[in-house]
Amino acid sequence: MIRAAVFYNDSGEIVSCKTGSEAGIYLTAESSEFNYILFEDSPETNHKYVENEQLVDMPTQPSEFYEFNYSTKSWDLQFSFAQQGKWSEIKKDRDSEEFGTFVWNGFTFDCDETSQRRIQGAVQLASLDTSTVMDWTLADNTSQTFNATELQQIGQALGAHVNACHVKARGLRDQIDAAQTEAELSVISW
């Protein structure tokens, strides 16, 4: 007959689950340094702990930033993980804005990496040849003609846009680092 044993420590944390013959499982269990419960079939042990020699479902994890505390049988916030998670959220929002669009003189320009390279190339050309004139496709797919001076100003606006995104992100990072509670973290947003 196949049997199973669930091994757990004194806090109720499940450390392993073994299956095998009844005699083999019994010998393994008896020689183990851990507490154990014997079962006829292999039980589901994911998201469970042991209490009073019974498998018990863990309560729902509030978020990925919580770790189960087997002593208290509750979820504890791991604040440094929550701060890292908030910073990841802010960086994602920063990148979304940085690589979205920017406005110069009422015109909206695409700002993805390819568009940034194209703008930088146009600025270089305009600085080498002041008679440069280019037709540019804007974010709304309309076309506009710009001269060399305007292209350089567009390049400056792009640089200011990127810098503003990073300045804002650094300020939010300072707020994240200064936060002491989950409530303080929750109000920090892009």
Describe this protein's structure.
Helix content is 43%, strand content 28%. It is of the alpha+beta class. It folds into two domains: 2-63, no CATH class; 79-186, no CATH class. The strands form five sheets. Strands 2-1-3 form a three-stranded antiparallel beta sheet. Helix 2 packs antiparallel against helix 4 and helix 3 crosses helix 4. The radius of gyration is 30 Å and the shape is elongated. The model has no long low-confidence stretch (mean pLDDT 96).
- Helical segment count: 5
Please list the strands of the largest sheet in the order they lie side by side: 2-1-3
Major β-sheet annotation: 3 strands, antiparallel
Order of helices and strands: EEHEEEEEHEEHEEHH
Spell out the blueprint of helices and strands.
Blueprint: E1 2-8, E2 14-21, H1 22-31, E3 35-39, E4 48-51, E5 54-57, E6 66-69, E7 74-77, H2 79-98, E8 101-104, E9 107-110, H3 113-128, E10 133-137, E11 143-147, H4 148-178, H5 182-186
Antiparallel strand pairs: 1-2, 1-3, 4-5, 6-7, 8-9, 10-11
